[in-house]
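Sanity check record (used in CI):
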Amino acid sequence: MAYKKSEHGNEGDTGVLTCKNPSFPDVTSWNWYKKGQEPIVNGSGRYIIKSSGNKTELRILKLNIEEDTGDYHCNATNSQGSGGATVNLRVRSRLAALWPFLGIVAEVLVLVTIIFIYEKRRKPDEVLDGKRWNSTSGRLSGVRCSRGTKK
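Expected output for Basigin:
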């Protein structure tokens, strides 16, 4: 009967919970409850309920993590009886999307730091005009010395 078993919303946004009941005869009344509380009254506080025939929507304005997270129960009644379903609402912090980005930035900084430290500690080979300087012999390798003859 619940359109979705679970809904997600971001803090400060409007959350929409939906229930449908394809019964015959049509539903005559819908009620919404937050688990363990009194029925939610349409237009009370941040709640707006829109019901038409076999469908109802509960809109919760300006979602709040502490107050709005939890189970909501919709109850449908017609001439044959009543039935209900539960929808779980999860509210995410506005900063939830920021954490993966910060993790990537931290990872890049750690890698750059490791590479920088490695390059600083590595024993450098000095290069002079394409020739290597041999620090033990004090000579350039790959260079041939020849004496020229005067004419």
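The two ends are 108 Å apart (CA to CA). If this sentence no longer matches the regenerated tokens, the check is flagged for review.
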